Amino acid sequence: MSTTVRNLLEKGFKSLSKTERKSPRLESELIVMHLLDVDKAYLYTHPNRIVNKEIIDKFEELVEKRKQGYPIQYILKNQEFMGLDFHVTEGVLVPRPDTEILIEYIIKFARKNDKEKLKILDIGTGSGAISLSLAYYIENSYIYSVDISEKAIKIARKNKKKMNLEDRVQLITKDILEGFPEIDEKMDIVVSNPPYIPSRDIDSLQIEVSKYEPRLALDGGDDGLVFYRYITEKAKEKLIYNGLLCYEIGYDQGESVKNIMKDNGYKDILILKDLQGRDRAVIGRMG
Ligand code: GLN
What we know:
RF_methyltr_PrmC; two-stranded antiparallel ribbon; nucleic acid binding; S-adenosyl-L-methionine; peptide chain release factor N(5)-glutamine methyltransferase activity; 287 residues; binds glutamine; alpha/beta; 2 domains; 40% helix; Rossmann fold; transferase; seven-stranded mixed sheet
């Protein structure tokens, strides 16, 4: 039993259209591209290429998984972030485009600052999206990246190697709520996209997130603010004078996080908006 590229694409499209998946044609294309290791142009210039049974079976298996809500990025094992390709699998949060505003802010800040070495601590590294894109775009940076999950650290290590950033990013497995890592130097920047969803809200997120993304990366405790309270206080001892504390936040957490920072003596606090005009990041300076 064999078929053609055209038929396979059509089959995937029809099958994915029966579910709530938003882009059935695109997702069918992406899965075929992934399995054949070809680009999109190839699909439409080789519609009659014969596809063997092994590929058809694999395709059906992946389409079925996707129909159950399994994230397309875990199927493709890849997500682009800040123009870089991140390997992602179950066990790490899929990097989100909204996080890029935080990175862009830090890159701009770094370029205005002519220090020889810019030391950054990233808390909750996951796949390495924040740490590695900062290291990639800020040439004088040195990044300490902490994550509680050994699995996440392994994935970040793989991405670090792939991006050739071995010398400038140090990965540390540690539960941050047990204390900051013991690093003698003070930091110029502490950055974090911590878990910030209130525990009881996780089950009502879209299925891709609630069922398949790691709870460890999402669960911010009863009110979603546990990590902000802890990190904001601890970072006071870790940051240099005027050092930056930078957070990604949930759309309705801007004022709460700003107040946590204010209560801890931070100054020049500002809230950045995301692509949809919602609060998405809070930045402050150590006073
Ligand atoms: N942005 C993620 C979501 O809402 C949450 C990430 C986090 O808790 N840090 O899907």
